[in-house]
Amino acid sequence: MKRFHVHVHVDDLARSIAFYSKLFAAEPARVESDYAKWMLDDPRINFAISTRGGKPGVDHLGFQTDDAAELAELKARAQAADIALFDEGETTCCYAHSEKHWVTDPQGIAWEQYHTLNDIPVFSESKAASASGTQASACCAPTTRGKPIGIPVAGAKSSCC
To answer: In tens digits, what is the pLDDT along the chain, a chain of 161 residues?
Structure first.
């Protein structure tokens, strides 16, 4: 079985080990003076690309859950670890209607945690259009990053990933 690999450069190893150990509910499999590695069997990976957003590169990382109970577990884990969390609730983004929340790691990388409720035919719908049953154009301009960075977020808009 293949395993997806993500490598993130950090500026404070100890702080990052503490954050990721809480986020993953697991200690690293290996720790060196300049390195730590987690070998996780769960979660599987959902990898997406789009032309939306700003500068090319890693936009955000995340976990897509199979059901609402798994999402609730991730949310409870973040809350129990006192990790700042931005709860979007039900929203539309990335051609899907989802329940989601966000956390941000010590370097400012956004982590999206979500459960897809159903697919939609557009990238995103405005809340007004969703309520009326009509479709709207994408909520994010091509240069908008679209997710909360540096949580807690004051006056954040619905995100588009």
So the answer is: 467 778 888 889 999 999 999 999 999 998 888 899 998 988 765 666 576 666 666 778 888 888 999 999 999 988 888 888 888 888 888 777 889 999 888 888 888 888 888 787 776 776 544 444 443 333 333 323 345 544 443 333 334 44
**b/e 77-97 (16+ beta carbons within 10 angstroms → b):** bbeeeebebbebeebbbbebb
Q: Which helix (H) or strand (E) holds 82?
A: none
Tell me, letter by letter, the H, E, C secondary structure of 19-41.
HHHHHHCCCCCEEECCEEECCCC
Q: Topology of 13-132 in CATH?
A: 2,3-Dihydroxybiphenyl 1,2-Dioxygenase; domain 1 (3.10.180)
- Rounded to whole angstroms, how far apart are CA atoms 93 and 115? 12
User: Hey, what amino acid is at 102?
Assistant: W
Please give the Cα distance from 139 to 122 (Å, whole number).
10
**Cβ contact 53:102 at 8 Å:** no
